[in-house]
Amino acid sequence: MASVTVETIVAAGPDAVWAAIADVGNVHRRLLPGRVSAVRIEGDERILTMPDGTEVRELIVAVDHEQRRMSYSVQGPGRLELRHHHAAFQVFATDDDARSRLVWITDVLPHDRAPAVAARVSRGIEEMRAVLESA
What we know:
Elements: E1 2-10, H1 14-22, H2 27-30, E2 38-42, E3 45-49, E4 55-64, E5 69-75, E6 84-93, E7 100-109, H3 114-134
Antiparallel strand pairs: 1-7, 2-3, 3-4, 4-5, 5-6, 6-7
């Protein structure tokens, strides 16, 4: 299984960053406005609606407030035709209370999809950083 890890330093405290990550029903407002146009929750699943109307169904696996870790799995192949997808965000404190480290790890199959996934998550984490810093 290919694993893609990206991270960024956010000019916002870890509690604020974690609050946005843990708010799984508001990705379109708190993390990726413009990239995600709507979200709905059905049980343990989150359905993201993209601006073109495409829907992505994700299983929310865990929201661990103590560890500031949220994990999810995309259900179905989607645009990248993945056979398997599991990802996790984790928020860490830094030496500066006004900043935090946001890490996003994504495991995918087939292996050859890793470069496409890496491009998406690299762009996505920078978009999230900008939104979190502007909040």
